[in-house]
Amino acid sequence: MAPAIMLAADAPRLSSANTGFMLICSALVMLMTPALAFFYGGMVRVKSTLNMLMMSFISLGIVTVLWVLYGFSLAFGNGNRLIGYNADWIGLSDIGLTELWDGYTIPVFVFMVFQLMFAILTPALISGALADRVKFSAWALFVALWATIVYIPVAHWVWASDGWAFKLGVIDFAGGTAVHINAGAAALGVILVIGKRVGFKRDPMRPHSLPLVMLGAGLLWFGWFGFNAGSWLGNDDGVGALMFVNTQVATAAAMLAWLGYEKIRHGACTTLGAASGAVAGLVAITPSGGAVSPLGAIAVGAIAGVACAAAVGLKFKFGYDDSLDVVGVHMVGGILGSLLVGFFATGKGQSTATGVFYGDHSFDQLWKQCAGVFAVLAYSLIASAVLAFLLDRTLGMRVTEDEEISGIDQAEHAETAYDFSGAGGGVAGIATAAPAAAQTRKVDA
C-alpha cells in the first residue's frame, strides 16, 4: 500500500521488533521449500525420490540469483499496472541499509528477502505435478523462465501498489492468486503439454514413505505461520495475529473435513489424507485469513478440505496426469480461498471490504475476487503451456521411456535415495525394505 503524505515528524521509523519479526518470518518461509521437498519426496516411488527433492531445492539457487539481479525490481518497483521497474534495485545496487519499505517500519532489504522466499517456493510447488518424467536441466531452465515471465508480473499485479489487481481491490493476503492459483494453473498447463507418466492408471504408483510425507506436511504447517502472519509486515494493529490464528484454525478444519470425506467415501482415514487436508486448508486460508473471522476460517477450511479431496480424483476422470495433486490441492484450494473472501470478509480485518454474508450483503468484493482469480489462472495456464511447449520442442522436457521406467534418480542424478545393499543386500534386501504400508491415495477414479 502506498504511504500517505506525512510530516517528517510523523514519518515511520525503523522498528527493531518488526524487523526481527520479519527476518524470522523470512526464515520460516525459506524452510517451506525443503519442507515441500520432503512432502513431495515421500509421495513418489523410491526411484524418483532424489529427483523430487532436487526439483524443489534447485529453486533456492536459481530464483535467489534472479531476484537479486532483476526480480525484485520488476515485481515491486514503481512501474505501471502490469510490471514494475526501479533502476536502483537492479542487482540491489543502491539500497540504503536503513531505507524503509514503502511507509512501513522495516528496511527494504527485509521486505526484499521476505518476498524472495515466496518467489522461491512458488515454482517449486509446480514440480509435484511433473514427478518421474522431466529432465532436470529442462526443469531448471523452466524455473528461470517461469519465474521471470509468469511469477514476477503476477506478483506485481497482486501486491505492488500500482498493480492492476491491487488497485482494483482484489484481496490476496499472502498468495492465493500469486502463489497457489499461479502454481496450480502452471502445473496444469505443463502436464497437458508433456503428457502422462508411463503406466498412468495402470501401474501402482504408491507413495514410498508416508512418514516423510507427514514430516513435510508438519514443517509446511510450521513454516506457513511465517508465510501468512508475516505478510502484514508487522503486527502493530493485530491483523497479523488474526492471520496467525486463522491459519491454525482453517488448517485444522480442512484436515478434519478431508478425513471425514475419506471415511464416508472410502471407509478409512489415511495419513496421506491428513497431510493433504492440512495443506489444502493452508492454501485456502492464505488469501482470506486477514479478512475473515475465526468462525469464517473454519468454514473456509472445511469447504476446502472436502472440495480438494473430491478434486484430486478429477485427473482420472479427465485423463491428465497430475502426479502429486498440485492442481487438485493448490489450484482448487487457491481458487476457493480467494473466492470465499467475497462471502466471508467481515470488514474488521485487513480492510473494510465485506462479503456477501456481512455488511450490506453486496457482491462487489466477490466480483473483484473473480476478476483476480480468473485473470491469474488464464495467464499462468497459457504462458506456462507455451513455455513447456517451446522447451519440449527445443531441449526436450522428458527423459526417455527406458530412463523413466528404470528410475529418474539414477538417470538424472547418478544416485539413489536409499542404499539397501548395506542392510541385507541384493534383490531380497530391496524387496524387504520396500514400505509394506505404502498406500495409493484413495480417489474417485
TrEMBL record:
Predominant location category: membrane
Compartment list: Cell membrane; Membrane
PROSITE patterns noted in UniProt: AMMONIUM_TRANSP
UniProt keyword annotations, A-Z: Ammonia transport, Membrane, Transmembrane, Transmembrane helix, Transport
Residue ranges constituting the Ammonium transporter AmtB-like domain according to the UniProt record: 21-418
Highest taxon in the source lineage: Bacteria
SUPFAM superfamilies: Ammonium transporter
Transmembrane regions listed in the UniProt entry: 20-40, 52-72, 104-126, 138-159, 179-198, 210-227, 239-261, 268-285, 291-314, 326-346, 366-391
Topology of this chain in the membrane: Multi-pass membrane protein
Annotated Pfam families: Ammonium_transp (PF00909)
InterPro entries xrefs: Ammonium/urea_transptr (IPR029020), Ammonium_transpt (IPR001905), Ammonium_transpt_CS (IPR018047), NH4_transpt_AmtB-like_dom (IPR024041)
Keyword Metal-binding: no
Key word Isomerase present: no
Database matches in NCBIfam families: amt (TIGR00836)
Family stated for the protein in its record: Belongs to the ammonia transporter channel (TC 1.A.11.2) family.
Protein name: Ammonium transporter
Organism: Streptomyces eurythermus
